[in-house]
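Summary of Year 1 activities. Much of the first year was spent building the evaluation harness for sequence design. The harness presents a backbone, in tokenized form, and records the residue chosen at every position. We chose the following record to illustrate the format because it has been used consistently in internal testing since the harness was completed.
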């Protein structure tokens, strides 16, 4: 049996070809189907009422329509942040977050089921990589949240579970579909991709000249310290990473964001702040400080509020552009893979 086509991952021109060659229908039908999938956010072929019944039957036979099933939703009573747990068609669980900002609604999506990057402080990587996610699955995180909340999603950050550049082709395709005029048409400028720094992929992405924001998880000012926190630093040095960032900027003219999670006594000293300011001098960038969210499995502690502020002030003294990430949804474990992990532990307790 041939595998069914993942119709929600197709670009419009691929869908046109599919419609003519495989379904034996007129080309204009593809536009109608595409609109059902990516604008009206249909969850089934039966909803596509301007298509004939036989065509809908053909679609059911030939295609899978990716649809994430919401299994849990937690809403923060502090700031309205909503965390979603979704079930994929093979029963795996992923998480996504909806955050409300003054400038609009932002959805943080997962790009892989699990992660193999092994960053020491991160809960998403503890179980390793389970599998890659499809473009349609990433998109559906956004689609289901937009439908559930009834509010337009204006920003997408690929900062959930997974390393997006380790699922590069699917990521790029997802961005194309998300920001295309025929779909939700979210501006590329409102899409951020966060990476731990897969250098060759940063070059590849740069050459696509997308207008998305690149966020780099730096977290340390020298290779030795970075290696302690992030295994990827054994493969690429900070110097190589920053060269890739300079190249990205030269191709896209987009200011780069550097994420720096502050861990008490590890990377939060005045010397670290000074070294960070120096490291990034001459680069048009923004620094986002994230007080680390402690996870049970590791004994990393959050820097004191005072140390965070001092760190920020020091960077500002050197003229760097810096913000402290506001913590959203603290009461619902909205941070980095914690909720998914807890959910899976609970369900395996129940089973066992
Ligand atoms: N793989 C991508 C996206 C991961 S999560 C990346 O590495 O960038 C988004 C950000 O949260 C990254 O900067 C990541 O390093 C950071 N992060 C992960 N776990 C964290 C924790 N427990 N506390 C603070 N920041 C964390």
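For this record, the design step produced the sequence shown next.
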């Amino acid at each position: 049996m041939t595998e069914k086509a993942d119709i929600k991952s197709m670009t419009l021109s691929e869908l046109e070809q599919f419609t003519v060659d495989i379904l034996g229908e007129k080309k204009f039908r593809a536009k109608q189907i595409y609109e059902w999938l990516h604008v009206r956010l249909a969850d089934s072929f039966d909803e596509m009422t301007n298509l004939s019944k036989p065509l809908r039957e053909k679609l059911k036979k030939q295609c899978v329509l990716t649809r994430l099933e919401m299994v849990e939703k937690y809403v923060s009573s502090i700031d309205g942040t909503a965390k979603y747990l979704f079930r994929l068609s093979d029963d795996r669980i992923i998480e996504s977050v909806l955050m409300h900002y003054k400038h609009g609604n932002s959805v943080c999506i997962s790009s892989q089921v699990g992660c193999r990057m092994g960053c020491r402080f991160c809960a998403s990587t503890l179980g390793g990589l389970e599998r890659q996610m499809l473009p349609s699955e990433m998109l559906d995180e956004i689609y289901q949240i937009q439908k559930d909340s009834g509010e337009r999603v204006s920003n997408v950050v690929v900062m959930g579970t997974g390393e997006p550049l380790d699922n590069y082709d699917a990521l790029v395709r997802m961005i194309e579909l998300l920001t295309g005029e025929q779909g939700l048409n979210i501006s590329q400028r409102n899409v951020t991709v966060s990476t731990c720094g897969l250098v060759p992929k940063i070059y590849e992405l740069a050459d696509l000249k997308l207008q998305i924001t690149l966020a780099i998880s730096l977290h340390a000012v020298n290779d030795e310290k970075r290696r302690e926190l992030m295994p990827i630093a054994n493969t690429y040095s900070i110097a190589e990473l920053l060269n890739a960032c300079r190249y990205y900027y030269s191709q896209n003219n987009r200011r780069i964001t550097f994420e720096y999670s502050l861990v008490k006594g590890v990377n939060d000293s005045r010397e670290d702040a000074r070294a960070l300011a120096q490291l990034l001098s001459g680069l048009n960038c923004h620094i986002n400080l994230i007080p680390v969210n402690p996870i049970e499995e590791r004994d990393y502690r959050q820097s004191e509020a005072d140390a965070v502020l001092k760190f920020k002030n020091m960077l500002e003294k050197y003229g760097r552009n810096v913000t402290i990430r506001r913590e959203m949804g603290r009461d619902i474990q909205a941070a980095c893979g914690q909720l998914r992990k807890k959910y899976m532990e609970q369900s395996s307790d129940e089973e066992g």
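The mean pLDDT is 94. Quantitative recovery figures across the full test set are reported in Table 2.
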